[in-house]
Amino acid sequence: MAATIVAVLLATALGETLGLTTGAIALLLVVALVLRDVDAGHDDRRTSPTGPTARHGDHGDTTSW
User: Fold this and answer.
1) What confidence category does residue 5 fall into, taking pLDDT thresholds of 50, 70 and 90?
2) Cα 3 to Cα 13: distance, rounded to the nearest angstrom
3) Which end of the chain has fewer CB atoms surrounding its CB within 10 Å, N or C?
4) Is position 34 within any domain?
5) Does residue 39 lie within any of the structural domains?
6) pLDDT on residue 42
């Protein structure tokens, strides 16, 4: 959450420096957030039952604890 707030503030400052309108800055922020969410959906470490967040007993888990 804090990273998103910082990103919005930085993008706003950069957009104003470059002379972009508020609408253009908002559109760029929406696109960036959507792309971030799409990328997060393809992160195998978050979705794989054998990734670092796997619980004991999940399919493919080979730990013995």
Assistant:
1) confident
2) 15
3) C
4) yes
5) yes
6) 57
